[in-house]
Write a structure and sequence with these properties.
Elements lengths: L8 E5 L13 H10 L2 H4 L5 H11 L3 E5 L1 E3 L2 E4 L1 H10 L4 E5 L6 H13 L5 E3 L2 H4 L9 H10 L3 E4 L14 H11 L5 E4 L6 H10 L3 E4 L10 H8 L6 E2 L9 H8 L6 H16 L3
Parallel strand pairs: 1-2, 2-5, 5-6, 6-7, 7-8, 8-9, 9-10
Antiparallel strand pairs: 3-4
Helix pairs in contact: 5-7
């Protein structure tokens, strides 16, 4: 059971901005959310105050809110996310996005997001660009993340959206990045399924690699991931929902069904994210 001191941080969420996050702007994501039964929220403009109210009902302390840039333009800009972090700086932390196709401008935008907007990380989703994370276009961003002391967040595993899944393989792609840049903190979101064993292996192998469980309800976590969280991987796995894909109350109620020690549950639900993203 959760005690009063336990912090809950969702490591992967994004705002919903009405028609800017609808089927026309992000058709791959909307289709996935429809399959998850959560498409209604995507089409709504949920503002900072309303989102905090939803968090309070579920007992969530902090959301890491991600911007989204897809080939061709912004869907959710860094400034859109900054409107949330300014409104409730104790409840939201920003995760930047950039235009991977324009590497120099991407580095400038990452610096702006961290240094001026106060963001705590960068997220690039490989399937969206159809470029694995060891592609040369990522490397200027990696070195900038190291200089700025913020994590690089990405997606691992197959793609629910109708895009090729190969870019989400932890081995060889993420493994190569971790070997090249041992100072870069890497967070692989979406548990890596069906290559969860690969993702666990990469996180165990590299001190700088972590996992978040976004987009998967706890009842569907592979048993080997739960064992990793509870034993030799404690502190390496963070709670995430990919909100609004998964509702917080449903996900958190299922966490209670996992056979986690009190210490492992505290690390999973918030303490690991607080350390890795330097929150609070």
């Amino acid at each position: 059971m959760r005690n009063a001191e336990m912090v809950i941080i969702d490591a992967w969420a994004q705002p919903t901005l009405g028609n800017r996050t609808d089927r026309l702007a992000m058709p791959e994501i909307v289709r996935l959310f429809e399959k998850s039964g959560s498409a209604e929220l995507v089409n709504r403009d949920v503002g900072p105050d309303e989102l905090v109210g939803l968090m309070d009902k579920a007992g969530v302390d902090v959301l890491l809110l991600s911007a989204w840039h897809r080939p061709g333009g912004w869907v959710i800009s860094n400034d859109d996310v900054a409107a949330f972090t300014r409104a409730h700086p104790d409840r939201f932390a920003g995760v930047a996005s950039v235009d991977l196709a324009r590497p120099v401008q991407a580095v400038r935008e990452l610096r702006r997001a961290v240094e001026e907007l106060g963001f705590v990380g960068l997220r690039v989703v490989p399937w969206l660009w159809e470029l694995p994370p060891d592609d040369r276009r990522y490397y200027p961003l990696y070195t900038t993340c190291v200089e700025l002391d913020v994590p690089f967040c990405t997606q691992v595993g197959h793609t629910g959206p109708l895009k090729p899944s190969e870019t989400g393989r932890p081995v060889p792609y993420l493994d190569r990045v971790a070997l090249d840049l041992p100072e870069l903190v890497i967070v692989g979101g979406h548990i890596g399924y069906p290559w969860t064993d690969e993702m666990i292996g990469v996180a165990w192998k590299h001190d700088n690699v972590y996992i978040d469980t976004s987009a998967y309800l706890p009842r569907y976590y592979p048993p080997q991931l739960v064992h990793f969280m509870n034993t030799y991987g404690r502190g390496k796995v963070m709670f995430g929902t990919n909100w609004p894909q998964l509702p917080h109350d449903r996900a958190l109620s299922q966490v209670e069904q996992l056979d986690l020690s009190d210490a492992a549950r505290a690390d999973f639900l918030g303490e690991a994210a607080r350390r890795i993203f330097k929150i609070g």
